[in-house]
Amino acid sequence: MKLTNFTLKIEYGQDGKKHNVCLSGDDLAKPYCDGNITLSKQGDDNALKISLNATSAIELSLAELIFDRYFESEDAVYVNGFQSWTTSREYKRGEQQQGLSPICRLPIVRDFAGASGDYFFTQYGKDLYHSFTYTYVRNGERVELLGSLNERTGYSIFYADLRENVIAVVKDIEGIAVVGDYELFDIMQATGSYDEVFDAYFAAYPQKSTGRVEHLAGYTSWYNYYQDINEEIILRDLKGLKRAGDAANIFQIDDGFETKVGDWTLDEVKFPHGMASVVEKIHAQGLSAGLWLAPFAAQFGATIVKTHPEWLIRNSRGKAIISGLAWGGFYALDFELEEVKQYIRQLFKTVFDEWGFDMVKLDFLYAAAIYPRNNKSRGQLMCEAMDFLRECCGDKLILGCGVPLGPAFGVVDACRIGCDAETSFKDKFYVGRTNQEIISTRNAMNNAIFRRHLNGRIFANDPDVFFLRDGGVKPAKYSLGQKKLLAKINNMFGSVLFVSDDIGEYPEDMLELLKLSYKPFDGKVISAEYVEHDKIRVVYEQDGTHSLTFDAFTGECEEL
């Protein structure tokens, strides 16, 4: 496939009139002008940039590039899901990329279940797969990658239509009004082995990895206590982490320290001696201190929702937009408002300057750009939101979560690349009946494997926690084999390795497994693919060549 051979479709409105433009690559050998807009291209067979200039204001409604691409029966198409939690994997002809389940399309349910995904502005269908920011087609060891080098003007959504044998690149330009210059597309193509094409892509990508996180191993409080944490629990588990010795380097306090999500005042009943005192004890143990935040979220019952309703993102009818299910439902703060920016800046000033934290895990970030507004697309808003967070955090470490990955490139130091792991290995009954961001250990392992190309190239991958405990407040319903499998997958494919267990309760064999799982993986993954439904085979080198085949549903595995 050559990037010079394309069809470009543009639709726009001006002065109440609709205009349609359809051009071939040859038609753009010279700049094209219809009297309202000028379109021009740069590039060659492996690079393509298309720019638009509008002499007066226009409203874009479609920007699409279409390439003919014959798909062979053995081709596997990679889908990079909308955000951190969204299912990301290879698909072959006949497999279905799932959207919202039928029950979640009901009027009230869809507002909650659909908020975290792309369900309202992308297409799903049989043998139709879509991927954000980049995609690839793999046949055996040969990989053909297509990737966007600019998400700042809107998300680039790559559609592979195996029925029509085309690849389309659609720019999410909903909400865009343009005057003057506007870059529609900047895409590249690379062909070679799996590692070669991703080396080429991230060498060309304008935002680079900060390179400040190579390996994090330690503790996060969420998956044993959820919001039910207090100073006693945190200090007890901090003491337990001593048993890991030098294998651990970070201790993170998760959700539950605050009175309400969105208010961010410390719950002084839970933490009577203040957060700075806790951080001082974390540092005294030779560990970095991390704190979870959701800076754009405000749960329904938060004081800020009542006192500053004008701070919430609202739709064209003036109604506050539901941004997700968590905490019984939450809204999002409009970071474009100066008052909101000042509020968030003060939050980070407290976290870093008064409390003394070294890292923040920033969650539910997609909510900042859930709705296009102010003549900006979702992608543009998300990139600007991430820039703002980096400004707030300065040189402190950021672990991103619940974030579209393209806008996070070059901003975060580490990033979650899958959904939350569940305290039971077996999926809960509602998985498969909701959305593609739902909590699932099976899906967490899937994403750890199929987003492995990001690890170390643009940030450190966080595959989420593994579980070794037997008891705990929230017992982990895992067999010993399932515990070992999840720990191995996280170790092989991730660079952020957390447990939420009270390590002080570990028997010696579990402590040794923890230390082993905390160590950086010293091998190399050669390949990974689905060989049957739910069955994945990984080939890797580590003191010889090995093959690990496991059932992601049951945890049964064999290693050769």
Q: How are the secondary structure elements laid out?
A:
Blueprint: E1 7-14, E2 17-24, E3 32-33, E4 37-44, E5 47-68, E6 76-79, E7 89-91, H1 107-113, E8 128-132, E9 134-139, E10 142-148, E11 156-161, E12 166-171, E13 177-192, H2 194-204, E14 216-220, H3 222-225, H4 231-241, E15 250-253, H5 275-284, E16 288-293, E17 297-299, H6 303-307, E18 330-332, H7 338-354, E19 359-362, H8 378-393, E20 397-400, H9 405-408, E21 414-416, H10 441-450, E22 460-462, H11 480-493, E23 496-499, H12 508-518, E24 524-532, E25 535-541, E26 545-551, E27 557-559
Parallel strand pairs: 14-15, 14-23, 15-16, 16-19, 19-20, 20-21, 21-22
Antiparallel strand pairs: 1-2, 1-5, 3-4, 4-5, 5-12, 5-13, 6-7, 6-9, 8-11, 9-10, 10-13, 11-12, 17-18, 24-25, 25-26, 26-27
Instruction: Label the structural class.
Output: alpha+beta
Could you report the average pLDDT, rounded to the nearest whole number? 96
Spans with pLDDT under 50 lasting ≥5 residues? none
Strand element count = 27
**Number of helical segments with 4 or more residues:** 12
The portion of residues forming beta strands comes to: 25-35%
